Amino acid sequence: MLRIAVPNKGSLSGPASAMLHEAGYQQRKESKELVMVDPGNEVEFFYLRPRDIAIYVSSGKLDIGITGRDLLLDSGANAEEILQLGFARSTFRYATRPGTASGPADFGGMTIATSYEGIVAKHLADQGIDASVVHLDGAVETAIELGVAQIIADVVETGTSLRNAGLEVIGEPILKSEAVVIRRTGAPTDDPKVQRFLRRLQGVLVARSYVMMDYDCRAEHLEQAVALTPGLESPTVSPLHNEGWVAVRAMVPAREAQRIMDDLYALGARAILTTEIHACRL
């Protein structure tokens, strides 16, 4: 069986299980379950701490895993990402009190508090900056107030919590992270079970990003309509009973669907419909 690590808690857990369910895999019903076997799909799922997943995968005990890019890089494990999953996106940045520093070039001799010691230490070393890094779990904003550090490095979403603590973001982002599928570095790329798993997840990603659009239009406007809905290879076009009309079907990006419908209507197209795609293979 294919042995897969899945986050057991935190912001990665729910979306990861939801994506696996959409991909046709059974998922645990109770959060206390640590292992679940899906015999129909020849997969065994192990629910682990997100921070530990890269370590397990790099050991070769598990074939692949789902974790965050930030956790993968911070672990220093011998593992690599093979598919981006598009959820749990975050930006990792430095922050401090106004006037303390404007960026990493000013960090010399200072102390930086973070929960991601591996990422920060590497970032500083890559830039030749001599600064100390102290590891803290949980909220690191108070490290500056308590005098543990002059700088913090943490995940930033809206920046509200930093502003509330009297801090400001400085410098360029250290890292942009999201959920990824990982494998042990150098593992065979042609394992059919792994390839099937990746195809299923890629199908979910496409299904979430596209909708199927159907509409009727005059034959003389077909080329203009097709330019708006080119589909993947090309749209499906069928003649209608009424002479001079055709029916068109194509996949279109979900985020652009409303604009495309407006443009098609202005072109004279009618009976414009969109439907969700639940699964696909490209």
Automatic annotation (TrEMBL):
InterPro entries: ATP-PRT_HisG_long, ATP_PRibTrfase_cat, ATP_PRibTrfase_HisG, HisG_C, N-reg_PII-like_a/b, N-reg_PII/ATP_PRibTrfase_C. It is found in: Cytoplasm. One of its GO terms (molecular function) is glycosyltransferase activity. It comes from the Bacteria. Pathway: Amino-acid biosynthesis; L-histidine biosynthesis; L-histidine from 5-phospho-alpha-D-ribose 1-diphosphate: step 1/9. Its cofactor is Mg(2+). Keywords: Amino-acid biosynthesis, ATP-binding, Cytoplasm, Glycosyltransferase, Histidine biosynthesis, Magnesium, Metal-binding, Nucleotide-binding, Transferase. Coiled coil: none annotated. Feedback inhibited by histidine. Its main location: cytoplasm. It holds the Pfam family HisG. Residues 49-203 form the ATP phosphoribosyltransferase catalytic domain. Residues 207-278 form the Histidine biosynthesis HisG C-terminal domain. Its EC number is 2.4.2.17. Transmembrane segments: none annotated. It catalyses: 1-(5-phospho-beta-D-ribosyl)-ATP + diphosphate = 5-phospho-alpha-D-ribose 1-diphosphate + ATP. HAMAP family: HisG_Long. Belongs to the ATP phosphoribosyltransferase family. Long subfamily. Catalyzes the condensation of ATP and 5-phosphoribose 1-diphosphate to form N'-(5'-phosphoribosyl)-ATP (PR-ATP). Has a crucial role in the pathway because the rate of histidine biosynthesis seems to be controlled primarily by regulation of HisG enzymatic activity. PANTHER family: ATP PHOSPHORIBOSYLTRANSFERASE, ATP PHOSPHORIBOSYLTRANSFERASE ATP-PRTASE. This is ATP phosphoribosyltransferase. It comes from Streptomyces gobitricini. The gene is hisG.
